[in-house]
Amino acid sequence: MAYDVARNTYQEIEANASNGLQLVVMLYDGAIRFLNDASACVKRRDLPGKVLAVDRALAIIGELQATLKMDEGAHISSSLDGLYTYMTQRILDASLRLDPAPFDEVVRLLANLNNGWKEIAQRNTPQMPNSQPAAVPGTEERPLELFG
């Protein structure tokens, strides 16, 4: 049973991340979610929860930074590298001082970048025409039968 859940989750991620742009968007979404969690944990003084959320957010930002192609689009890559370094410093500062404000600042920065990546991903994803499959007579009201 656990294998099926893991396989289905993997297949869902694979389908959603059919290209690198969608994967970047997913990483930004994850970092934003973990930083929001970290901020909430600080506010309620949940230190173990904060540590876990910060570790996950830093891992994502570190991965985004490590995969920058500095030889391609050097100006943009260099700017993102500096921004990721700044974000990492702000996250560590927030974690050390137990201050949610720097987490919120980094969330805003990530959200702005994420919106740009989403726009680029949307432009690069082939759009399927809005069409509906033809109805098969006699199946409109029947529930899906899974076992027989």
What is the name of the CATH architecture? Up-down Bundle
Amino-to-carboxy terminus distance: 21 Å
Q: Please, what is the CATH homologous superfamily? A: Flagellar protein FliS
What shape does the CA trace take? globular
* Percentage of residues in helical conformation: over 70%
CATH class assignment: Mainly Alpha
Q: Determine the structural class based on helices, strands and strand pairing.
A: mainly alpha
Report the count of strand segments: 0
The average pLDDT is 83
How many discrete structural domains? 1
Tally of helical runs = 5
Biggest sheet record:
none
Radius of gyration: 20 Å
What is the element string, with H for helices and E for strands? Answer: HHHHH
CATH topology: Four Helix Bundle (Hemerythrin (Met), subunit A)
Please describe what this structure looks like:
With 148 residues, the protein is an all-alpha fold. The protein has one domain: Up-down Bundle (Four Helix Bundle (Hemerythrin (Met), subunit A)), CATH 1.20.120.340. Helix content is 72%, strand content 0%. The chain contains 5 helices and no strands. It starts with a helix and ends in a 25-residue tail after the last helix.
Notable features of this structure?
148 residues, mainly alpha, Four Helix Bundle (Hemerythrin (Met), subunit A), 72% helix
